[in-house]
Amino acid sequence: MSDQDILVLFKKGQRDKAFKKLYRLYPRIEKLILSKGGSKADANDVFQEALIILNRNLETSNFKLTSSFYTYLYSVSRFVWSDIQKSLTKQQLQELNAQEVQIFQDIIEEKKYQLAEHAFLEIGKRCQQLLQLFYHNAMSFKEIANVMQFKSSKIAKNQKYKCLQKAKDIYQTKLKSVQS
Amino acid sequence: MTSYNQHIELINNYFNNSLSQEAKINFESKLGNDAEFNAIYEEHLVFVNGLSRIEIKDDILKAKRTFRIEKWLKISGISMLIIGALTMLFTLAFNTSEIEPASNNDNLNTIILDSIPSKDSKIEILGVISEGKIDTSKITSQIDVNYTTTSVRKKHGSVVTTKRDLTKRSQVIRINVAKDTTIRCKEGTILKITKGSFINPNTKKTITGTIDLKITEYYKLSDMLQANLSTVSSGKQLETGGMLYLEATQNDTKLELKDNSPIEISFPNQNQKPGMQLFLGEWKDDNINWKLQTDDVDNLEILEENIEVPFAVVDQVPTFPGCENDDNEIRKKCTTDAISQFINQNFNTEVGLGLGLTGKQRILSVFKIDHEGNVNFIQSRGVHPRLSEEADRVIALLPKMTPGMQRGISVAVSYSLPITFEIAGKQELTGSLINAVIIDTSLVVNPNNFKTIEIDTVFSSRRGIVETIREVMHDKDFEVDSLFANQWRQYNKQKLIRKYGVNKTRRFILRKSLFEMKNTKFKILEDDSITRGGHVIRTPWDETKIPTTTRVMNLIPIERFSAGTETVTAKEFEARLEDLSDTTISSRDASYYVLKSSNLGWINCDRFINGRTKRIKYKLNIKSVDDVNISMVFKSLNSILPSWYTNGVYDFQEVGYNEDIVLVAIKRKGGKLYYDAVDTKTEKNPQIDFKFSEVSVEELKQELEKLNSNFN
Description:
- In chain A, 78% of the residues lie in helices and 0% in strands.
- Chain A has 180 residues and is mostly helical.
- In chain B, α2 packs across α3 (35-98).
- The longest helix of chain B is centred in the N-terminal third of the chain and has 64 residues, at 35-98.
- Chain B is elongated and about 165 Å long.
């Protein structure tokens, strides 16, 4: 059950099993969040976020995990929570070390994606399904047309584009509102 | 739009790595060059990543769920294991405790019974056997140990431990002592146990609830051999009809049989042999010795009673202390003399005075000196109960004597002692012993001491028949003469007048005939109710309406105090005390007088002493040789302990340690009283100095009262 095993699982693509093992570390991180004024739900979200970031990093080839999973997740969770709380002062930001900076950047990056995700969730069920089938399941349009009961693959293609556009629009709006 | 689509498609392909190498290079250069394309690319990237988040989240959720489930599975699994392990341990532990071998009969409560033919056929009274507390006697007529029964009295202390295990399996039966129980054992022995027969040997309390009875039967020779049982009684050989081992326990406490609660044991028939008797077994080292036991203690007592020997006939008469001698005749004379003299000295002839008796008075006393030398079964008969009482009292004061012996065995000896004395004229008391040796004893009363007893008359009033009659007649002045009173009593007896109810509901029923008699004093009154039969129900007046007129007169002799060998009234006592020439009153008398008249109480010191843990012997050495009386007054109780004076030491015997006390010393010298009181604590080897100051009687009384009030 060491970190090595978890890494192997990730490499193998057995993401969920890896996550399952990582969940053992959750109680401590939950305690951290709780002590910092968060609720259990918050802790849940934070941990999830940390896992996502971890996963992303693991998928990029140039990521090197220098510490244990726990330490990494711990730091990430801490920053995530601080970011949510908006409690990081400029000074604190300046005092971060290299690794922490990296983590911080990752978090910021992820936030963008988070925004996109939210946008996606707002486009409607059918669109969501369509897009998921295309991106997640990597189906061909023909197959999608089958599943979603489109008349032709072309229609599917068209629909996909429309959905995507919609989502992107929403994303842009969100982005603008966040940035303002 | 389409271009956008195409772009997107391209990008997707790029991501999927479905572009050729060449296309890839193209794409990447385009990214570098075309800003717009770049933007699109970036945006799309973000979006795609955003989408992927959803997937990741799904995975995470899945993982979380799985994790949780696994966690709970683990927990329940482990707890099951723990529970399982605990129950296993528990059952193991429990089981081992039951497997304790009940090996040794190493205690006081075992009986091993045997039955053998008796050889002797004489009635002989044996003395009390020293070991155990068994009185045994060999009884003449063959006692058949029939199937009917023989009783066994189990006595403690009779069986000594054995080191050898009895290997025969025993039967353990659980019985409820609240009921009479009959047990039939495997080999045919029948035990009958009455309810409530067992006691705890330590607390002596009767056992309730259930007890375990362990029974081992030994009828077969093999069984007996295995258990190393033998059949010998003090060196004599016995033939056995069977042996039994009994033990009773409750919660691991060994129990004993209550006195007079024997267990009836019936040995099965095939072991019947004439002359079988019951023996109790005692282990000495590895061997058992059997001793005969009585069937019934009652028998023994009856026998004892039957064996009562008259004084004149007995081999060896009971001996008064100090009369020991080899020659029985000398002893007899000495004892009878001593008894007569004792009666002389202690009989208070003055009880005969003031009773209105004159002339020769006779009291006949019989008593018994039992086989232990105690005087009991005293019965005196005199003309007046007070005389009988006095005789009883004096005889009871006789000291314990050496019992009479008949053929080497202690026996009870009966005595008859007539006491005669004369009142008025020549005061002489004579007493004599019947039964062979008659001795004249004269109790002489000193004529100087014979004075009229001073008596106080005490009057009290009582509600009697006169009041009742008046209550019923509703007339407080109703004339009641003795004739009428008798008539009333008569009517009551005849049920012509009946009373019922209590207090306020008291009623009298007066029958018709009372009113119809000639010259009757009964009249029907206003608030009478008449019954159907014509009888009258009357509510009597209550006490307030009828005053009490009956007076009762009691004669009580004035309290007398001892002054040396006489008793005198209080007045006389104080007069003597004042009198310088008078020497009859000792300081002891004085202190007693003073204490008594000051109303200080005496408490049973036994109770008190038990309350304290430590007791010490308290003795005082007093320099003053004069006649001093010292008492110990306890501060915490209204209690006084007297002292016994011997050889210059005042001995208070045992007292509680470290108690707050006051030592009160009263001295009488030259017709004067002296007093001192010292506050101290009870401790060993006390050194007390008394400083006496002269006091009058009144002052002395006051001093003592002070003590009384201080210590509440």
